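Quick question, first post here. What does this chain look like in 3D?
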Amino acid sequence: MSLLTREVADTWIARWDVQQEGYIPDREERFTAMVDAVEAAAGRPDPLVLDLGCGPGSLAGRILDRVPGATVVAVDTDPLLLSLGRVVHAGRDGLTFTELDLREPGWAARLRLPRQADAAVSTTALHWISGEQLRVTYRELATVLRPGGLFLNGDNFSVDDSAPGLARLDTELREREGARRFAAGDRPEDWRQWWDAIAEEPAFTELHALRGESVEHHGSESAHLSTHVAALRDAGFGEIGTLWQRGDNRLLAALLPA
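> Answer (accepted):
Ran it through. Tokens below.
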């Protein structure tokens, strides 16, 4: 871990951004919509914001760029991505990284927040959590958001099989868009290739080993929009709907009752 310098971390986060944009061409536009919504809903210049499944802090950093008075508590279970974020954002006021498993009951209390959060955000992260575990995540979240607090989840949400015709069209549209974007064959590095490459970087040898012990990914276990809506309703959120959308790239929003 001593080899992890700011220069090395910057290089790998730049590669992370490129591979993420390969999946999400409207990634920056979605980030902008998310921060707009946080600013509008918080109603104060110093909101307390949770970033769930924060990775290396891509969204957290953008929130503080736009809302410098904010406090962002960034939560993830991946020691390698958290270390990247801590190095790149070292010394940045208003940002703390916390290693917690969002699938475990009690994670919200372990944050020891100074007050209830005004908003929580997540981007391209919670689809890794199974439907039943997602209910735990959202129930925990509801305990630390203030009344009227906002949750935003930006991800690629698909239509479920209860509407088979729409589900087929949803899949077809995604496949056709991808075929057009990569018609010339210039497909960027993907998620798996990025992880395979960073595993070969000497600066991450110890962190990669730690990651193997603590991180479990079994595919997109809760990719359906309906899974998240049902779990949010179960957790006590009231109004739930899509604030922004480009194809299956959606910004799902939920408000606690005021």
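Residues 116 and 146 are 5 Å apart (CA to CA).
The first helix runs from residue 6 to 23.
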